């Protein structure tokens, strides 16, 4: 997986930050210190699945 930007300060994730997330699911922003844990990130369901719930 590759992640893009820190939502807190907006800097692009470094290669090492991406590597740590892929390795153990945890990292922190080198600029602002925000912690990231993959299990805590909200992943939206596929659009087709969401649409099926509204029928």
UniProtKB/TrEMBL annotation:
This is Zinc finger/thioredoxin putative domain-containing protein. The lineage of its organism: unclassified sequences, metagenomes, ecological metagenomes.
């Amino acid at each position: 997986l590759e992640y893009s930007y820190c939502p807190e300060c907006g800097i692009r994730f470094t290669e090492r930050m991406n590597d740590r997330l892929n390795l153990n699911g945890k990292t922190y922003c080198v600029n602002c210190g925000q912690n990231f844990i993959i299990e805590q990130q909200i992943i939206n369901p596929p659009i087709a699945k969401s649409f099926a719930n509204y029928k």
